[in-house]
Design a protein that fits this description.
extended; two-stranded parallel sheet; mainly alpha; 5% strand
């Protein structure tokens, strides 16, 4: 149980950008948490509404198919990616260079865009990185708004 409390304090500290010891009275000062790669920890964060689906405005979505149906934000991202991939296809075709979705050759490869709306795919939180190098660009006096994610500095 103490380990779980320490883990949760560390995660809270990571999210708030302060040393983990500030959350657990009586623990010695130590370096701030810089990276969380532990699957149990990232799953716990997803369970606390740090999921990609929630950030995209569709917290109940379990698959990319669900997300593509219920999130205008995600639809905007996939539309942008689709246009970008189509432009790549056109450039490659104009240059008479082959472009493959599936190949084992050392050749031009492109994403199969069907994966962006697949019932077999989802985005999982794989890691959390405390970007202390960006500290000068963020407000440290208040936690970031819940809608902010990634390296957003707004």
């Amino acid at each position: 149980m103490a380990r779980d409390a320490g883990l949760m304090a560390g995660l809270a500290a990571l999210v708030l950008g302060m040393p983990a010891s500030a959350e657990v009275p009586g623990t010695p000062a130590r370096e701030p948490v810089r990276m969380v790669l532990d699957r149990a920890a990232t799953s716990a964060l997803e369970g606390m509404d740090w999921s990609f689906a929630r950030i995209m405005g569709a917290p109940g979505s379990r698959t990319l198919e669900d997300l593509s149906r219920s999130s205008p934000r995600y639809a905007d991202i996939t539309a942008y990616l689709s246009r970008d991939v189509q432009a790549l296809r056109e450039r490659m075709s104009a240059d008479r260079r082959p472009l493959f979705e599936v190949t084992d050759k050392n050749a031009g490869r492109v994403i199969d865009l069907r994966w962006l709306a697949s019932p077999l795919a989802r985005f999982d939180l794989a890691a959390v990185v405390n970007r202390t190098d960006r500290r000068d660009f963020t407000r440290l006096t208040a936690p970031p708004p819940a809608a902010r994610c990634g390296s957003s500095t707004g």
